[in-house]
Target: Lipocalin-like domain-containing protein
Amino acid sequence: MKQIYLIVIVITSCVGFSNAQEEQINGHWLVTKITQGDESYEPFFIQNFKENGKLEVMGQELGTWGYHKKSNAIIMMSDFDKDYNGEGKILKLTGAELVVLKDGTKINYEKLDRAEIAASNKKSNINGMWQFKNLPSEYISSYISFREPDEFTIIQKSENSETKLKGTWIFNKKDMSLIMIGLRGENMPIGKNKIVRLTDDMLELENDGKIFIVERKISGKEQESLVMGKWVLTEMQKGEEIKEVDSGVIFAENGVLKMGFFHMQEILEVGTWAYDENQNTIVMTSADEKVLNGNAEILELSSDTLQYRKEGIIYRFKKYIETID
Model:
């Protein structure tokens, strides 16, 4: 009888161990490092070993998975990607870390706590719309919107096109880092970034020796309020050619668009204007003035400076300051 009890206890312990291993594997994991021979890289993407046996990578279902106790391995089956088909030998497994060896490649994972990430992101002071200030191309405007709990969208706009990239962001206050998952392109802060500076208005990131600077984009109503008023058009630039000008434009509070010469007090009503928050553009309508008809993409805007691009031409303005003789 004691022998039967002993067998039952051993079987129960094995089943319990197997279930415990599966429970530890279940969930979202961040792939932080992949090592092949002497070479390694940090891909930073999310893999989800779902409780129902489904395997997801970056939100896409690629196959199934299961834990094999005898070989202490994760068995994956996929018809879509050979990298997720076969046996991954577990080298290390804790509640926070997983290391797997598959086909001679070592893969390091970190367990993700989605609730903890959401709470950390919420307190980060990063949520909101920002604009990249030091990307290489002056003809492409790049914006990034961080939203709760962990999604970001990058919008890149040129004169004739617009692209959007979506991904996941993770803020870590302990080491002051920002992980950007889902990006591509050498001119983007892909993967783990060191936060060099974070204020209400500026975020500076260091990534593999490169510095990325983004400035917070103010709200639509604040942006519209800055546009309103009297401006002096000082320069028009097309390609490398810059033309100096001196004419006045008024974006009136009631949506009326005016143009003229302030010093000669010759101001005419030429059309209408409105601010489009979604596109960050000034929408102008004028039958009389071609340069004031169409959509103008705002490149720079402050209390005393306005710069926008329309039909391939960059227009630079300074706020008009009235003088008393």
